[in-house]
Amino acid sequence: MERLQKVIARAGIASRRKAEELIKDGKVKLNGKTVTELGVKVSPSDRVEVNEIPIEREEPVYFLLYKPRGVISSVSDDKGRKVVTDFFAELKERIFPIGRLDYNTSGLILLTNDGEFANLLMHPRNKIEKVYVAKVKGVPLKENLKKLAKGIHLEDGKTAPAKVKMLSMDKKKQTAIVEISIHEGRNRQVRRMFEAIGHEVLKLKRERYGFLTLNGLKAGEARELTPHEVKQLRASALESEKNNHRL
User: Fold this and answer.
1) Interval 89-106: pLDDT, tens
2) Among candidate residues 134, 196, 130, the one with its CA nearest the CA of residue 169
3) Is 35 in a helix, a strand, or coil?
4) Which region among 4-8, 32-36, 56-60, 103-107 has the lowest average model confidence (pLDDT)?
C-alpha cells in the first residue's frame, strides 16, 4: 500500500506537493469516488483518476544516458530534432529526463518515470554535485578561475561557489580545458559563467552526476541504474535537504 499522492507523483503527473493540492481540490478519484483527504493509501489494484483521466501505474525505472551533442533533453521536439527518449524506443515505460543538458552539451543525464524521485533530485536545496569539462576559447587567467570558484554575478544572481581546475592549455591554438563542479542547475549556467570571465565555451561535457560517471558508455549508450544507486541518490538528496533545514 502506498500513499495516494506518492502514486500520482510516481506516475509523472505532478510533484508530490502538487499531487496533494490536486487531492485537496477534489481533482482525484479513487475507484470512482472523489478523494479530498491526504494520507489515503492505495493498493496496486485500485483505480486512480486525475482530472477524470485514469493514471497508468508503471513500475519505476531509472536510466543513465550518455547524451550526445545535438540532442534535446526532452520527450518531444516541435522542430523534429532528436530527443533523449529516442534512445529508449523499445521501452514500454514513459520516461522523461531529470533536468536538462543543452542541445550542444554532451554527457551524463538521468531519465525515469518516477516523478517524486525526479523532483527530489532537481530541488534547488538538494545540492548534488555535477562535474563538467569545458573546452574554452582563450586561456583563462588564474584570478578569473578564482572568481568562478568564489561565485560570479550573472543576470539571474550570483552563482554558488564552484570547484574549478585547469586540466590543460594550448597556447598556440589559444584554447584551454577546464573542469568545473557545480551543484546548481540554472539554464546554460556553465556556459554563462565562462562568458562572464570572457571565455566562450567551445565544447561542454557533463562527466559526473553525484557519484555516477560515464564509465563504460559511449555517446548514445545508456544503462539502467542499480537499486543500490537509486537508493544512494535518494539518500544523498535527502541528507542534503536535512542539512539545509539545519542552517
Assistant:
1) 999 888 999 999 999 999
2) 134
3) strand
4) 56-60
Answer yes or no: do 8 and 35 share one domain.
yes
Q: What is the CATH number of the domain that holds 10?
A: 3.10.290.10
- 112-150 residue pLDDT tens: 988 788 888 988 778 899 999 999 999 999 999 999 999
SS3 199: coil
Domain that holds residue 136: 130-209
Whether residues 175 and 146 fall in one domain: yes
Report the relative pairing of strands 201-209 and 105-112 from DSSP bridges: parallel
Count how many domains the chain has. Answer: 3
pLDDT per residue as tens digits for the range 152-181: 999 999 999 999 999 999 999 999 999 999
Mean pLDDT in the chain?
Answer: 92
Same domain, 171 and 193: yes
Question: Is 102 a residue of the active site?
Answer: yes
Is residue 176 within 8 A of residue 169, CB to CB? The reply is yes
Residue 217 C-beta-side C-alpha neighbours within 13 Å: 22
121 and 84 within one domain: yes
Distance between CA atoms of 174 and 196, rounded to whole angstroms? 18
Spot the catalytic one: 77, 78, 86, 102: 102
Instruction: Please tell me whether residues 43 and 18 are part of one structural domain.
Output: yes
Half-sphere exposure of 234 (CA within 13 A, CB side): 13
Provide the β-strand partners of residue 137.
Answer: 175
For residue 48, give the C-alpha cell. 486512480
| Distance from C-alpha of 98 to C-alpha of 210, rounded to nearest angstrom | 13
